[in-house]
Design a protein that fits this description.
Structural class: alpha+beta
Distance between the termini: 62 Å
Helix content: 40-55%
Largest sheet: 5 strands, antiparallel
Number of helices: 9
Strand order of the largest sheet: 3-4-5-2-6
Strand content: 5-15%
Shape: globular
């Protein structure tokens, strides 16, 4: 990153922000971390380079609510996976929790960074000129999000949230990319690859930083390329065996 932007911009934008976000010195993190921040020599203010960008109509909450209304889905909240798995009958398991917890931390714990969101509603139309502003240095929080900009809403009041990075084992959010953590994860992945009927998906279970569109794409790929394919293959095998 220093070779791309120089020491001055590295200190101003990258080093302190990285320390605040990850709680780890930048030199101890994988190079992919700062590479997620785009460097542009133009007036494009977007974060991503995708041609088409947006969010679902009604937000992601509406997406999940519609999925959970399916007749074949039973939802259990505040439930510890380890406490109920022996009492649940299943043919295939899709696990999206921390992969180290699935295998009872046999190779040690993997670190996951968390975020505390603090919301505030203010009697103003806007408090910032854009949806998201990052704060590399001067505040404990890393960014402030004003949601009205994202949904193009018009109202005399506004609600914002501020992100405060923290360590919280009860709410893991982000895998911490480093060489040592990757080596530990690969040990767990080897176990996962030999766990029949179990599929591991998402940030926590694959110990990889995904954006939301990537999470959705991965979930579809796991289903189409593994679960559906293996199910179809097994059905063909059973049919041939019976015939």
């Amino acid at each position: 990153m220093i070779s791309q932007v120089g020491w001055e911009l590295y200190e101003a934008f990258y080093r302190k922000y990285t320390l605040k976000q990850w709680g780890v010195d930048p030199k101890d993190l994988d190079a992919s971390v700062p590479q997620r921040l785009p460097i542009r020599m133009n007036s494009d203010t977007r974060y991503f380079d995708d041609r088409w960008q947006g969010i679902p109509v009604g937000g992601f909450t509406k997406v999940f609510n519609r999925m959970l209304k399916h007749k074949n889905i039973h939802l259990s909240l505040k439930t510890d996976f380890a406490e109920v798995i022996r009492n649940v009958s299943f043919r295939k398991l899709l696990f999206t929790g921390p992969i180290d917890s699935f295998f009872k931390y046999v190779f040690g714990r993997l670190p996951y960074r968390s975020i505390e969101f603090k919301f505030e509603t203010l009697p103003k139309e806007h408090i910032q000129h854009i949806g998201v502003i990052n704060y590399p240095n001067e505040h404990e929080y890393t960014r402030c999000v004003e949601y009205k900009w994202l949904y193009q809403q018009r109202h005399q009041m506004t609600t914002v949230s501020r992100d405060y990075p923290c360590w919280n084992d009860e709410e893991p959010y982000y895998p911490v990319p480093s060489r040592n953590n990757h080596e530990i994860y690969m040990k767990y992945k080897a176990l996962a690859d030999h766990t029949r009927g179990a599929y591991f998906c998402g940030r926590l279970a694959t110990y990889r930083y995904y954006n939301m569109d990537q999470c959705i794409a991965q979930a579809l790929a796991v289903f189409e390329n593994r679960i559906a394919l293996e199910t179809h293959t097994n059905l063909l095998f059973e049919a041939e065996t019976q015939s």
